[in-house]
Amino acid sequence: MLARVWSASLIGIEAVKVGVEVDVSGGLPGIVIVGLPDAAVQESKERVKAALRNSDLAFPMRRIVINLTPADLRKEGPSFDLPISIGILAASDQIDPQLLGDFLFLGEVSLDGALRPITGVLPIAAAAQKMGFMGLVVPQTNAGEAAVVKGLSVYGFENLSQVSTFLNDPTTVKPTQKLETKGHSHIHPHLDLKDVKGQVHARRALEIAAAGGHNLIFVGPPGSGKTMLARRLSGILPPLEFSEALEVTKIHSVAGLLKDQGRLLRQRPFRSPHHSASGPALVGGGSFPKPGEISLAHRGVLFLDELTEFKRDVLEFLRQPLEDGFVSISRARQSVTFPAQFTLVASTNPCPCGYYADPIQACTCSPRQRETYWAKLSGPLMDRIDLQVAVNRLKPEEITQQREGEASAPIRERVKAARDLATHRFQSESNLHSNAQMNSQHLRHWCQLNDSTRQLLETAIRRLGLSARATDRILKVARTIADLANSPSLEAPHVAEAIQYRTIDRLQ
């Protein structure tokens, strides 16, 4: 007898419908799985056999052929255990096959028949709703995550016996209730900008970066507060909108990093990989490509502390994602695209010893050492960093002062107001979310210059040797500064302030 059950497989963060065809016929007992299964899928026949027997369900001692369609798509992971089990039960007349076409099944089974959680349920649930499925059957642990999707009935079960009972009598179980989807927008109270003493210039740059989504680098001696400032950027960013939160949560679901099942991620991601990270760890990869740090930082912040300690070839991987907002990973069988619209924040010392140009402690590095040190940061990479800020050593009176700096909360309100202005301006551009994403056409439309402002910019281009890309980024920063000042047009002070953030492209 033949039965068909529907499941799904992930390609990047997109789901593809997979048919699980099970044929139970005469012949020598055995199970054959075809349709490009990986090792985990091949091993499912042993798990399924033991799970059915230990769930007081009969395993047919006949020849069983399982075909996973489409046959040219590689299937991976243990999520096909449940649909294979249901297919065998339907093909051996142990459950009613009438409802199988209305549901999509996902889940790993243990040898005792218990259903174990899997990764990537949220994007599959979203795809199932678009495909027109009435419901989704998943392990109980994954039910809250899948229930976030509107218009889809999600049924969570703890074991195979419960699934079998449900399919024979669907009135016995009610769908999982959707939890509150606001999620957590909690800002860590111990990461507040009020703890940062002095550094007015750096704090201003941090506010501009948050308001416009601009890339930022802090350069300064050890102990000047570079890392302290960078780690407080997430505290002045507004929470994710619903569409953004759904996108970010999908990526974390695929990566298996969701800690709070049933809730969307509302706080913008903040990723801080170690400088020993490899290229695939940063941009994603693997034989079955998974998202890397830049995709996990999508709509949030990627912080690279001690930037010059990263390998040069690893840093060069960032150039294309910084420009395009996505990363494409090609393998022999497939090509996967992951979103990667993140704000890069980096910090570094000005030289190997850390004290070049310091007014108190003398630098012990030779010009050759400084040149080699900065050679890790290529011109094209530095061109893509909008705000390049020197963070100087604090003065003694700044260190000992008891007065707190401005807190993150009022800065976050200003950032949100500036972002709201940009959102209103970009309302006809569906793929535009911040000033940093504007292209040349947008700049011509929204960053028009008067004669005096144009002369100021031309003078800066000549004196600083700025490239066309660097000039465009100055205009983007100036647009953000104007938004923070609630100014509809670009004025000379806005452009002048933006120019001063391009003065340390190289320190040697």
Provide a short characterization of the protein structure.
Helix content is 37%, strand content 17%. It has helices spanning 39-42, 44-54, 81-91, 121-131, 140-146, 160-168, 200-212, 226-230, 242-254, 279-283, 293-296, 312-316, 319-324, 367-374, 379-383, 396-400, 408-425, 440-446, 451-464, 468-484, 492-499; strands spanning 2-11, 14-25, 30-34, 63-69, 103-105, 108-109, 115-116, 135-139, 153-157, 216-219, 270-271, 284-285, 290-291, 301-304, 326-330, 335-339, 343-348, 387-390. Helix 2 (44-54) crosses helix 3 (81-91).
Report on the structure:
The strands form six sheets. The protein has a five-stranded parallel β-sheet. Strands 1-2-4-3 form a four-stranded mixed β-sheet. Strands 5-8-9 form a three-stranded parallel β-sheet, sandwiched between helices. With 508 residues, the chain is an alpha/beta fold. The protein has two domains: 171 residues, Ribosomal Protein S5, domain 2; 310 residues, P-loop containing nucleotide triphosphate hydrolases (Rossmann fold). The longest helix has 18 residues.
CATH domain topology of the largest domain: Rossmann fold
Question: How many domains is the backbone divided into?
Answer: 2
Alpha carbon gap, first and last residue: 76 Å
CATH class of the largest domain: Alpha Beta
Strand percentage lies at 15-25%
Mean pLDDT: 90
Unreliable stretches (pLDDT < 50, length at least 5) are 181-187
User: Strand order, biggest sheet?
Assistant: 11-14-17-10-18
> What's the overall geometry?
elongated
Radius of gyration: 28 Å
The second-level CATH architecture of the largest domain is 3-Layer(aba) Sandwich
How many β-strand stretches? Answer: 18
CATH superfamily membership of the largest domain: P-loop containing nucleotide triphosphate hydrolases
Secondary structure class reads alpha/beta
Largest sheet: 5 strands, parallel
Helix content: 25-40%
